[in-house]
Amino acid sequence: MAMFRQSSEGRMSPKTVPMELEAAVDSEDASSNQRLHDLWPLGEVDPKRARFPCCIVWTPLPIVSWLAPYIGHVGIGREDGAVLDFAGSNFVSEDNFAYGAVARYLQLDRKQCCFPPNLAGHTCEQNYRHAERGTAISWDDALHSSMQHFQHKYYNLFTCNCHSFVANCLNRLAYNGCVRWNVVTLASLILWRGKWVDGKSVVRSFLPFVSVLCIGILMAGWPFLIGMAVFSSLLVGWFLFGIYCTRSLIE
After folding, report:
1. Which tens digit of pLDDT belongs to each residue from 20-64?
2. Quick one: which of 182, 132, 147 has its CA closest to 76?
3. pLDDT at 249 over 80
4. Does 12 have pLDDT greater than 90?
5. Do residues 171 and 133 make contact, with C-beta atoms less than 8 angstroms apart?
6. 3-state secondary structure of 118
7. Element (H or E) spanning 195, and its range?
8. pLDDT tens-digit profile of 211-240?
9. Of 18, 102, 125, 126, which residue is least crowded by CB atoms under 10 Å?
10. Of 157, 182, 185, 188, nearest to 248 (Cα)?
11. Residue whose C-alpha is closest to residue 151's, from 85, 81, 72, 76
């Protein structure tokens, strides 16, 4: 029985040793998980080199943005700044942003994302819904999973487009604790919080719209403005209806 008690030299009993080993293993696992989720510093946003780390980026679309300047092409930046965008059916472009240089961007905070090591490790409140949408252990892991998913999708401006791809990424990240990102919420985020790259980007985005508007008024008068208003209403109404009334209609 003496061998199971603590000796005068301070040795531990066999019952104590496994408990200490278990605590050490748990501590090591926690330390490993902490290292896994440590967020290293990002590089600076550099429009000249087309580097936008952890940013949502936007640029105007030909013809479509001439009639509705709030609509454009969007993508999302990896941690190294390279931009991914759903540029066509079964194709996600890497570091080759479609339709020209980035005009507007919004850098997101990775601390607002949920990177759960398991189902019990969610930091967001919607852990089960997040698991259904797809989880990731890092920012780039989420983007890679969405990229693989959309490489088997057909592009359609009205049902499955570049906004759908970026929204899918944000849902995998559970950004800001939300897993219900969609075309409308994403467009609103860029519209109200996005930053312009420079003054030239503002001109490039709005000059064609203003030109079309002026020409239309000169040639057709007020009916042209009414037609533009109806066009915008139908376009916005389609996305609102597709997302909130027929959820399976729009990705």
Report:
1. 444 443 443 443 344 344 677 899 999 999 999 999 999 999 999
2. 147
3. no
4. no
5. yes
6. coil
7. strand 195-196
8. 999 999 999 999 999 999 999 999 999 998
9. 18
10. 182
11. 85
Amino acid at 130: H
Could you tell me which of 223, 9, 33 has the C-alpha nearest to residue 137?
A: 33
Residue 94, beta-bridge partner list = 84
Using an 8 Å Cβ cutoff, are 65 and 209 in contact? yes
SS3 breakdown of the chain: % helix, strand, coil, rounded to 5? Answer: 50, 15, 35
Residue 1 has pLDDT above 60, yes or no: no
Structure-token match 């399976």, residue found: 248
d(CA 171, CA 178): 7
CB 39 within 8 A of CB 110: yes
Compute and round to an integer the Cα radius of gyration of the chain.
25
CA distance 84 to 96: 8
Confidence grade of residue 67 (pLDDT, cut at 50, 70, 90): very high
Domain borders along the chain are: 47-206
CB atoms within 10 A of CB 116: 18
Measured between alpha carbons, how far is 229 from 75 in angstroms, rounded to an integer? 27
Strands (DSSP E) contained in 43-158 are 55-60, 72-77, 83-88, 91-94, 104-107
d(CA 126, CA 132): 10
Q: Please provide the size of the chain in residues.
A: 251
CA 29 remoteness from chain centre: 29
Largest CA distance in the chain: 105
